[in-house]
Amino acid sequence: MPVCEDCGEYRRRAVEGPQTVAELFEEMAQVEALMKRLAVHRSGLRRRINSLVPISRLPPEILIEIFSLVCQTSSTTPIFLGSICADWRNLAWSTPLLWSRITLEVSDALPKSRPHLLSEWLLRTINLPIHIKLFPTEEDDAVFLNLRTIMEVLATHSACWGSIECILPPQCHDLLSMRHFPILRSVFLRPPKGTISTFSQPPDMFGDGCTPLLDDVDLTGYDFSSMKLPWTQLRRFRTQFLTVMECFKVLQQCPNLKECFLDNVYCPDHHQQFQRHQLVHEALETLEVTFIKGAATSSLLDAVSLPSLKNLGMHYLGTENVPLLPVISLVSRSSASCSLHKLSLTRTVLAEEDLIRCLEVLPSLVELCLCVRELVHPIFGDGYNLGAREGLSERFICELFHRQDVRQPILPQLRKLTYEGFVTCPIPVLLSMLQWRWRKLGSVRLEHVTIYTGRTWTMTEEEETSLDELRGEGMQICLSP
Description:
Layout: H1 21-52, H2 60-73, H3 78-82, H4 86-93, E1 101-106, H5 114-123, E2 130-136, H6 141-155, E3 161-167, H7 173-176, E4 186-190, E5 216-218, E6 236-243, H8 244-253, E7 259-266, E8 279-280, E9 286-291, H9 295-301, E10 304-305, E11 311-316, H10 325-333, E12 342-347, H11 352-360, E13 367-372, E14 376-377, E15 381-385, E16 391-392, H12 394-398, E17 416-420, E18 422-423, H13 427-439, E19 448-452, H14 461-472, E20 476-480
Parallel strand pairs: 1-2, 2-3, 3-4, 4-5, 5-6, 6-7, 7-9, 8-10, 9-11, 11-12, 12-13, 13-17, 16-18, 17-19, 19-20
Antiparallel strand pairs: 14-15
């Protein structure tokens, strides 16, 4: 035989005269059979190698946790995990949890096999809650047509939806109406960018008990007046372009609301004052509001009392200085049980005195986020500032630590400070505050400090050493231009 069946070595033999075609075909068959046996042997060796790798010795329960974390935090799919080796494939194929998250980019090129593969994918979830994220690569009719094809498959499993995040064109609305979503808890929908929010209605999928467990809704971009939601169930809600009266209506309709995010709030010209008594909302812990008009700040905050409030965000980018007195009044009015932990402010005017007065009545504050945005000229751009340049000053920094020429420091419980904007405070004063807050204040330390400014930080070698010492002791400091 020209091929040794034991070792596979090809042995030359003296050929007396030409070989026949039949003999050559027979020899080829022997070679192919040997290659198959060697491939099987090689696969066995690879399995042996894989079995000696430390990760292969982990219990299946630990591997599943690792797989689940990887699939949740990256683009890795169980299909890819199953391609690594037979053991991983068996584990991934038999674990419904790994198939319960569906993240798809939808383009204008939809493979014909994708709907079938998606159906197979859904079958592997074995009725676990399905968490769906759909991201169109472009917002045009061709992509939306493919998105509808995907949504048609997903809608057949609406009884298993746990959450949905999607840019949803009107072409898909009919697929969601008249369906039941018994375990759906979170909805994050956006209309296409070209849609005008005041005329864009959300899909009719929330009425008549269709979503009995829904408690987290984000419908930014849709017309608020056309929203029909199970309001009393909601614990988290976000939307935009509301009047102050509509904000008040949200809080009235949602007695169990814990987190509320309202963007682009305004007072119409025909705005009417609220009735004298305030709305007391016992459950609300987080309120983030972005205002279009400064007058809306006091109109909203003066109308409510929030005893459970922990996190407050007020954001306004208009030219006028909006006083923080409504914040002070809200905290004072919301009874002693209101212990504000985080305050986030975005303004174009720092109004230092007003800010300090506000912070003086917030001794429980743990985190402070300040952002001072510059208004730039619409023609001349960034180089032409429309207002006086205000920023983080020496006066304000001195209020944060104890010195002989100032009173007791404000915010004794502060652990995290984030600031974005112009800085006028000298670096030595800033360093003194950081050192005092970290080393001398007592049990409560300022642990995280992040400052984004429009200038390059110029420090002496001694100042750099002081910063490095604080970082080495565990203080997290980021000074970024």
